[in-house]
Structures are given as C-alpha cells and as structure tokens.
Amino acid sequence: MHVGVPQQWSMVAREFETDTYTDLPVRWHITRRSGQEVKAQVRGTDADAVAPRFAETCAQAVDRLPNVGKYGDAEV
C-alpha cells in the first residue's frame, strides 16, 4: 500500500507464490519500505479469518507511516 499519494486504495488479490505459501488460517506482515511506503500482506487458508485481519492490517499500515516510533520502525 503506497500512502504517499492523495488517493489511498487497497484491494484483495489472490496469488500463489511458492516462497510465501502458508497452511495457517491467517498470517500477516507489515513492512516499512524506503520513502513514503508501507507494505501490508495478509494471507491464509481461512477466508473468514483473512478478511477481518486484512482490514486491521491496512488500518495499521496507514497509521504506521506517520508514526515511526509507535511500531518500533527505524526511519528508512
């Protein structure tokens, strides 16, 4: 999710990547990238578990960008 632009958006995408495969019901990860970008990934085998975690992860990613110290991120 790139939040350095005026219009913010996100979308659910179904992908199969062998290096990120999980057999867990839900797994999420948020990464601060260089510049004005925070990347949020949510995947799992249980759609009912993934959907609410996706919303929570997107909200945290948006909050994480201006609040570097709140989440322990280093300024990149």
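The above is record 1. Record 2 follows with the same two-line structure.
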Amino acid sequence: MSFETVSFGVGSLFFEVVDSSREFEWLQLVTQTLEKIPSVDDIKTREPRSFFEYGALSAEGLGETQLISQKIPQGATISFTLQIPKRTQKELQGFGYEAVAESGSFRIIMASESEYPFAFIRPTDPGRNPSPSSAVVVVREFLIAELAKLGESCSVRLKTLGPSPLHADFHVSPGKGEVALAGGLSYTAKKTRGYDEYEFFWDGPEQSDHSRAISATLGYLAPEVELYYFLVAVGHLRYHRFTSLSNQFANLMDLHQDRSVKSRISRIARSSSAIRDIRIALLAVGTQFLGERKFGRGRLERMEPTRPVMVLKSLMEREVEPKYDDEIESYGKMLELLDSRHTQTVQRVTAFAVSLLGVVVGALLTAWLRR
C-alpha cells in the first residue's frame, strides 16, 4: 500500500531574539514564546551545536532590516504544528484566495544547519495540494500577527528573507521520477506558467511510510536550500550597497545640475572631493562584488561533487550571476566626464582670478606712481 502525495513550500523564516545580549538563550526563548501561542502544538527541538556570525552578511551602516542581525545557531531545529482557521487563511492571503489547508493544520520545520536559516512548511491535509507555497505566506503572516499580540513581553521576532516563499511548489509521491537522487529518492522538475513544480518520488524501503519519504526529501533538499538562501542574503546586501552608492551619485548629479549662483560656487568648492569619494566607493563596491561572486561560485563548485544531482542549481546560479556591472561602468564614465568639466571650470576660474588680480595690482601700482 502506497501513501498519498504530500506537498510543501519552502522559505527562510527565523525567530530572532529581541534582546541581543540573550542570543545564546535562543532555543529556550523561542520555545517559551511558541508555548504562549494557543494555536501552536507538538513542539520539537534540537539544541544548536554552536553560534556563528558571518562577516559576509554584515549589514552595518546600510539600514537593512530583513537579515538576521545576531549570531545564528548552527545545527538547530525547531518544529511545531500550527492550527489556522480557514477564514483566517483567506484573510492573510488577501482578496480572492482560497484556504491552503482545509483542516487548518500546518507542520513547520525551521532549521539552521551551517549556511542560513530556512523553513519547510506543509499543509497536513492528505493528498496533493495545488499551491503549497502559499502555506509559507499564511504561516508567515499568522506568526507575525501572533507575536504582535504578545506585546512588549515577546522575547523574539520573526525574520523572513525573500523570496519566502521560494518560487516553487514541492510534492512527494510514491514511485519513480526522471532523475535518480539517492537511495529510493528521485525527482522530476516541471516548468509552469506560475511557480515551477518539483515532483519528488519515493521508492525506497517501507514505501508505504510517508514519513520516511518526507524525511528523505527534506534531508536531500536542506543543504541546497540553506546555501540558496545564504546566496540570496549576500545578494540582498549587494543591492543595499549599490543603492547607497547610487544615492551618493544622485546627490553629486543634483549638485552639478543646479544652475544657481550659490550652487555654482558650492560646486567649485565641493565637487572635487565629492567625485574623489565616490570614485573610491565605486572601486570598493566593484571589488567587493567581484569577491562575492567568486565566493558564491566557489561554494557552488564545492557542493556539486558531493551530490548526485543539484536540484536547485539553476536558482543558485542565478544568485551568483554578475549584477550591477553595467551601472558601475556607467557611473565610472560619468565621473570621468564630471571630473573633466570640473577641472576645466577650475582652470577658467583660476585664469579669471589671475587676470583680475593683474588688473587690480596694475591699478594700485599706477595710483601709487602718480602720487
């Protein structure tokens, strides 16, 4: 006897401790908070083996709020069941959406192994779910609302990193797929007009045991999902750094486009240092982006030989593709033009000042001689 299809969605959800001085109490504080939510049941945890902070994910000075701002527990897992009424599911998704789980029951697994936290979320209704990725949206918004109800006494907050949900739906069924993975696990990927679908199949021992099939599937996906979200996090910071650089450049352009007398005088005095500062920032950002691409590509290349097939390879490769190179090159050319114009302006002002000084000195000398 085989089992019915099981569906799930993927995202990056993490409970961050509000008081960073208690970050090493992460598991205790998260568990205590979940126990205060009436809809939460069957909490299971695994202690973190260590806590680690990635220098590559430092967002200091960028005004970034999505990324985790403290040490991340390594090797930690927390899972629980969440009951969300059908009406609430519809409200959380917005107008026109149906409930994701008819029973209202969801099973959530949050983990942080060695890269970046991630979550598997599945409606527990038997049978194939047409949109399991929507379960991530429902659970995410429900947890945010429930934590808000706890008020200032709440010791954790929910951090989510987009895309959450990951833009794909996942299903596990008995049988064999097109591509063999490991043991009795295989899969078939399907491109659709909406989210892509990843169909996993279980043909291993105890084929009728859906828990074995789910465990095998999640276990195989986990390393790829956490590396994917790590690369997304690096790319997220890259976007904020580029935005900061773009704002500096926009301010410089405003200075050069203002035709008022006050602005012209200010431009002569400030333009040279502003151009120099942005050039330095441009070089620093370009060098950092190049290093991040090499770093991300290296992580992918080290993972690939350790796995029969990388299911999410195309998604991860998209995250390490060059970004903002054309914009950075354009900024460099524009800075050269502005610098050239500024140099010419300074030369004209200097020539005028020298001529004016000569006239003044000549007039003074003539007046003195006529005394």
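Confidence is low (pLDDT under 50) at residues 344-354.
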